Request: fold
Amino acid sequence: MDQPFRSFLRALPDFPSDLPNFDPAEAPSDPSELFRLWLDEALAAGVPQPHAFSLATADGSGELSSRMLILKDISADGWEFATSRTSRKGQELSINPRAAMNFYWPQLGRQIRVSGTVVLLSAEASARDWAERPGADGSSNDSWQLYALRPREMEFWQARADRHHIRHQLSFPAS
Ligand SMILES: Cc1cc2nc3c(=O)[nH]c(=O)nc-3n(C[C@H](O)[C@H](O)[C@H](O)COP(=O)(O)O)c2cc1C
Reply:
């Protein structure tokens, strides 16, 4: 008989054994600075798309969906991403402007969660993002929208070999 799927999954590789140290007391107090530090370390560790994250959204009745996106910037407006307003996530954000991001960098055993309220950025900034994307052909896209997530909660998570994983949690007042 085939090995049960449960056992097969159990035997798959776990976190690498040489995980980095993380001491929240030593971390920069600005979370975007800490993110950029970790992003540099993810690149150095060979994470192929460290700026990719999953974005979870919900519709008006709480039905959830998630997908991968690319982080465009971290600015005074928030954590920026872009998509079509007519997409499922675009429609969900128009009725329920809340979302949760999750970055995962397995080579380092690191996960970063960011959740909060999403706002629409300007038509000019959206058009600029569309024009700057790789493979842009000079065409315009009126439904392309740059969004910014304003964090309410964040968590920097570091796996440890002894399983005493480190969770550095931050929360911010509603703006
Ligand atoms: C690594 C990765 C990055 C992606 N980046 C984007 C992105 O920045 N914007 C976007 O609209 N879709 C992006 N996609 C496609 C989305 O995951 C998704 O399929 C699409 O936006 C439709 O999602 P929705 O139907 O849930 O709205 C990316 C997919 C992958 C796998």
